[in-house]
Amino acid sequence: MGLLRVNGLLDVRQLWPTGSSDADTLHVKLRGARPFAFAADGTGKPRATDAFVGAYVRVKGRKEPVIGKGGVLRVRLQGVDAPELHYRPASRLPELRQAYAESATRAMAEHLRRSFGRDLLECRLETRVAEPNDVFDMYARFIGDVLITHDGHALNLNQWLVEQGWALPSFYNSMTNEEIRQLTELTERARAARTGVWKRGGYTTTLKELDRALTYRKPGSVPQADAGPLILPKLFRRQYMWWDERTRGTTRAATLREYLLEPVPSKRDKFVDARKFLADGAKAPVHDLGEAIRSDNRLGLRPEWIVFLEAEANLCGPDGKIVRAW
Fold first, then answer.
1. Most buried among 20, 52, 136, 323, by the most CB within 10 A?
2. How many CA atoms lie within 13 A of 79 on its CB side?
3. The CATH number of 2-316 is which of 3.30.9.10, 3.40.190.10, 2.40.50.90, 3.40.50.720?
4. Rounded-to-integer distance, Cα 182 and Cα 180, Å
5. Alpha carbon of residue 21 to chain centroid
6. Taking the complete model, does pTM exceed 0.85, yes or no?
7. CA separation (Å) from 51 to 3, 72, 85, 96, 320?
8. Are 128 and 40 in contact (CB under 8 A)?
9. Which of 75, 51, 58, 73 has its CA nearest to residue 143?
10. pLDDT digits over 212-250, tens only?
């Protein structure tokens, strides 16, 4: 397993309410003539690579370049899932948000400005991978950690979000045991301190009716208190999908559990128990997310006990072939 490093520039103004970005998905502008560098053993000196120049991922049938206009990467922070700021399963639907979504983005923006004293921050992206095809997800987003170092201050954004309680852990089988254990420890620390979403009345395992009045408020909106109950963000997204399909009559599922267990591959989020994954790796039994919802309509597992199986995504070069060489 090697280490890929990417030099970039993070603009704090993209975060809500000055921008539209939420806490766990950011835009980072590449910095330097050759910003990507890979160390095959994860410890040696990284060597510059051009493996991602002209590369793309097919997203819903279209070619989505992984390097966007102006040399910008869309970055999904690995191992974390912040409350949803704006989500809708179809373009005709309103964008909904969860409680604490606005607070999480504001808290991160304020912390960055307070720690580094400016909006434009040099940063480094890091991810542990074996080959270029492992770097981007099915939505053409770079998956990794965002690290900022300036004037003696060092910050790992992924870890900060979890430790402060502004994001829930969201593990995938592409992560290392060390990464999972580290974020699990930070989650336990935030839960014990009742900070962020772990405050009383915040995170809940109870799946309540979808609140369609809690809509996305565009940039420039005046911040307001947004505390309240919230469920696992992935379940929130699936709950909105279920509500939409019930409204259109395309599902007969009476509960979210039934919906997630319907024989439709796109609805069946696969996971393994993190405790089994850490011990047995790929041999750990695989379950459907719907199985984790109990008969009393509650999620029966802590977020840090769930390791989702990564959906397949192929990184293709200009020649249309999967990129495997650095």
1. 136
2. 30
3. 2.40.50.90
4. 5
5. 12
6. yes
7. 14, 16, 33, 37, 13
8. no
9. 75
10. 999 999 999 999 889 999 999 999 999 999 999 999 999
